[in-house]
Amino acid sequence: MMRIFKRPLATGAIVGALLAPTGAIALSLTPADIARMESRLNLTPEQRAAISPILQKSQTARSSTFQKYGVDLKTCGRPGALGLVRLNKDMKRINADTRSRLAAILGPAQLREYDKIVAEQTAIVKEQIMC
Fold it and tell me: Residue 29: which region, alpha, beta or left (left: phi > 0; alpha: psi -120 to 50)?
């Protein structure tokens, strides 16, 4: 009987982790995605160089966190309830760290645009996770 509730609970918790107010970047950004983001943010060459390692570190942290908790989009693998709580905590930490690092580099208008981009990408991640 409990098994019936595990999948919706797991799905909801993972989506919740990704849809945290600080936002999430799609699981796998392509170079084209990054180029579009840089263009939309109207970055200076210095800003481009400064945010690139931040985005790479964030994406690596997200991937390893999903792997750590057994999230697999191909097989719809998900962690148990305790794993979901821990996943959510880790994702919030990654999201907050990424945004605060970018806030030190981007201007206010650029940061607002970044938040819009994150919201759009969060919708994509939500679709990917809803197996």
Answer: beta
CA dihedral 33, 38, 25, 72 (to 10 degrees): 30
**Is the CA virtual torsion 91, 93, 101, 122 positive or negative?**
positive
Q: What is the pTM of this model?
A: 0.69
> What mean pLDDT comes out for the span 108-129?
82
Residue 87, token pair as written in the block: 């996943």
Q: Find tokens 């982790």 and name the residue.
A: 17
Centroid of chain to Cα 10: 17
CA dihedral over 97, 58, 111, 89, signed as positive or negative: negative
pLDDT band at residue 121 using 50, 70 and 90 as cut-offs: confident
| Amino acid type, 22 | T
